[in-house]
Write a structure and sequence with these properties.
This protein is an alpha+beta fold and 399 residues long. The protein folds into two domains: 187 residues, no CATH class; 197 residues, no CATH class. It is built from 13 helices and ten strands. It has a six-stranded mixed beta barrel with strand order 2-3-8-5-7-6. Helix 2 packs across helix 11 and helix 11 runs antiparallel to helix 12. The radius of gyration is 34 Å and the shape is elongated.
Length: 399
């Protein structure tokens, strides 16, 4: 039987003879294993962050708008409060539904003229768009029924106009209409001005839009499903309802964010595979270095190999010793590399605390240890086999 304990002891003793050379040999493995852990962690964290942002905006949302390109439209083609009610009542998977109408508008607040977007919204818009009330309150049912002259302003407007003073209770002049600020809001997940909510936005109950502009239709109709799995069906059903309620030639764009999420997943997977491939190439380069160093070791220890063979050491035992040396070098490098990667992640987590959460992928840690050790054993086998096949008589002649 092969003496494993003796082979392990001899391999460790051989590595301990020249620690500097052993460390330099494992340097490439350290870089490769650390790269795998960092790459997978960064890719998974970035993916989770982007998906979280999209889901915060509305991964469960479908939204519809009248397509005004190509086909002439008539007033009856516009999205109406009746369409909103039909979507809300006909689709069982719909949790919330809302409509919006927005236009650029100048208004006067505390004597200052502000260029902003005026957005008429329905009651459930706050839940669909995840709006957070900084102060005051959102519109209630009575505001919509009574056409109350009330409005909400963004935190940006309140800060620029009022500073640290409360904005609620102040009058806001919209041309011939005067309304009272009842609340200050902000987006739960920033859309950076890519939606109807921008830095300078004023929300009013939708019934006031007809008083201000004379219009009584929605530019965008939103519906939110209970889960993201129901979004494709809800999107198709919304499209069917809208086309059934309007002229056959009218066209509506009914979309959701599912395609965006799929793109994020695909891009993240592609980036991860490319970066992991780069890390694996680093490991292969490190393995080549291990093989070259092991060939040097075999050449330097030819006399030792001859003595061991003369004393009865078998071919398999000689091969095992040198394979173990290569494996220990790569395993030690992998452990140090993973430790460095974990330390960097821990340090970065402290810097971005409260921002992007960095989560360690333990699968990546296991993969880094396994690949690194495997590379060392694979590239160390050839020098080990060369040592095992050495002629003991010839080896003993080498000084």
């Amino acid at each position: 039987m092969m003496h494993w304990e003796e082979s392990v002891r001899l391999a460790l003793n051989a590595l301990g003879v020249d620690k500097v050379k052993a460390f330099l040999t494992m340097l490439g493995v350290m870089i490769g294993s650390a790269s795998i852990v960092l790459v997978v962690t960064i890719a998974s964290t970035g993916k989770a962050y982007v998906v979280g942002q999209i889901e915060g905006i509305g991964a469960n949302l479908a939204y519809a708008a009248l397509d005004r390109n190509g086909v002439p439209t008539v007033p009856d083609d516009e999205l109406s409060p009746g369409d909103l009610a039909a979507v809300r009542q006909s689709l069982s998977m719909v949790s919330f539904a809302a409509g919006t109408y927005d236009i650029p508008f100048d208004f006067k607040l505390r004597g200052k003229m502000v260029r902003a977007r005026l957005v008429g919204v329905t009651e459930e818009f706050q839940k669909i768009r995840n709006l957070l009330m900084v102060s005051g309150r959102y519109f209630d049912a009575e505001d919509f029924v009574s056409r109350a002259k009330v409005c909400l302003v963004t935190e940006h407007i309140a800060r620029n106009v009022f500073g640290h003073e409360p904005a609620t209770g102040h009058p806001l002049q919209l041309e011939h209409l005067r309304c009272t600020v009842i609340g200050v809001f902000k987006e739960g997940v920033p859309t950076f001005g890519q939606s109807e909510i921008q830095n300078e936005t004023v929300l009013v109950p939708f019934p006031l839009i007809k008083t201000i502009t004379g219009e009584d239709f929605f530019q965008v109709l939103y519906a939110q499903a209970a889960s993201s799995d129901e979004v494709p069906v809800m999107t198709a059903e919304m499209d069917h309802i809208l086309h059934a309620r309007h002229r056959k030639v009218a066209r509506y764009n009914v979309q959701n964010l599912a395609s965006v999420l799929e793109t994020v997943h695909s891009v993240s997977l592609g980036m991860s595979l490319v970066l992991v491939a780069v890390a694996v190439l680093t490991l292969i380069t490190a393995g080549t270095g291990i093989m070259n160093i092991m060939f040097v070791n075999v050449a330097q220890r030819t006399h030792e190999i001859g003595i061991r063979k003369a004393l009865g050491a078998r071919t398999a035992e000689i091969r095992l010793q040198f394979v173990l040396e290569a494996g220990f070098i790569s395993l030690a490098g992998a452990v140090i590399g993973v430790a460095i990667a974990l330390g960097l992640i821990w340090f970065a987590t402290g810097l971005v605390e409260g921002g992007i959460p960095l989560t360690v992928s333990w699968i990546a840690v296991f993969l880094a240890l396994l690949l690194s050790t495997g590379v060392g054993v694979l590239f160390g086998y050839r020098p080990a086999n060369a040592a095992a096949r050495m002629n003991p008589v010839q080896a003993l002649k080498v000084e």
